[in-house]
What we know:
- Keywords: Aminopeptidase, Hydrolase, Protease.
- It holds the Pfam family Aminopep.
- By secondary structure, this protein is mainly alpha-helical.
- It has 2 domains: 2-214, no CATH class; 307-350, no CATH class.
- It is built from 15 helices and 8 strands.
- It has helices spanning 2-5, 13-18, 24-39, 44-48, 55-75, 127-139, 171-186, 193-214, 222-246, 252-277, 285-289, 294-297, 307-316, 321-332, 336-350; strands spanning 41-43, 85-87, 95-101, 111-113, 117-119, 122-124, 143-149, 162-163.
- The strands form 3 sheets. The chain has a 3-stranded mixed beta sheet with strand order 1-2-8. Strands 6-3-7 form a 3-stranded antiparallel beta sheet. It has a two-stranded antiparallel sheet with strand order 4-5.
Amino acid sequence: MFDALRWRWVPLVAAALLSGCSSLDYYSHLARGQLQLLKAREPIAELLNRPTVDPGLKQRLALAQRARDFASAHLGLPDNQSYRLYADIQRPYVVWNVFATEEFSLAPKLHCFPIAGCVAYRGYYSQSRARGAAALLKQEGLDTYLGGVEAYSTLGWFDDPILNSMLRWSDERLVAVIFHELAHQQLYVADDTAFNESFASFVEREGLRQWLTAHGLSPNDALGNAQREQFVALVLASRARLQLLYDSNLAPAQMRIGKQAEFARLRAEYRTLQERKWNGAGFYDNWINAPLNNAKLLPFGLYDRWVPAFAALFAQAGHDWPHFYQRVAVLGKLPPAQRHKALAELSADAQNLPSQ
C-alpha cells in the first residue's frame, strides 16, 4: 500500500536533536539515524561529473536537479541545498512509521514534540524497532499499523538529500515528491497534519501540472492516478461509516461486529470497483487482502482532505505563487477551529472551479 500510494511524512528528527524530553532512548535512536543519513550525503553536482557513477543514476539525478531548479524558479519554493545532495542509505525505506488508534476510534494516538508539534505517528529508522513498538501498542489493546516511508522533510533544519529509496519511482513521481517536500519547508503548521499534507499535496499536483506543461509533456500515469483517486474515495467512505458506528451508543460487542462487517463491505466494494472500472487490475490487492483496522485507515484523508480548498485559494490568489503562500500563511495562523471553518468554505468554493 505504501508503495502504491507513497505517503510521505514530516519527521521528528529536528525535535529529537533539540529536545530534552523523556524517552531518551527513542530520541537517541532518531538522532543516530539522522546523523547517519547526513554523513551519507554527497553533492549531486560532483556525482554527475564522476566517471565511475552509473549512467542510469546520473540520468535520474540530472532530472532531480532540473526539477529542483524549477521548484524555486517557477513555484517560488525555498532555494537552498535541499535535494541538491544524494544519499544511498542501502535500504528500501528511510523510516518506518507506526500508527495507532483505540479499538473504536479513528482518532490517532498522538505523539507531541517541541518543533514538529503533535503528529499522528511515530517514526523509526529501524524496522525491528518499529515492529517492537507496534507490538507493545497492540498489547495495550490498540489497533496498530506499520508502514515504510521512502522520503521525508526536516522542514529546513537540514539540507535534505535525494534518497536511493526515491529513485524507484517514475520520473513524474520523483519530480512531484521534490515539490511536495519543499512545500513543507515553505510552510508548516504545528499540530495540523491534514493542513500540512493537503497543502504540500496541492503544491505537488499543481507544480507537476506546470512542470509537464512547461516541458510539453502529458501525464504518463493518468490511469494510475484515476485508480488511486477512486480507491481513496472508497476508503474515505468506509471511514465515514465507521465514524457513525463509533459515535453510536452500541455495546462494545455489537460495535465489534459492526466494525468487522464494515471491513468486509470495504473489501466487497473494492472487488466491484476492480471488476467494473479497472478491468480486473488491482494496484491495491496487497493492501485490501491484508488485515484491516482503524490504524490502517489513518493516512487516508490527510493528503487529500483540504486539497480542493487550496486549489480554490490558489485561484483566488490569481495563480500567483507568492500571493498564494501569503494567503496560506494567514490561514495557518488562525486558531484551529477558525482555520478548519475557512478551509471548509474554500472547499465548497472549489466546486465551482473549472476542471483542468
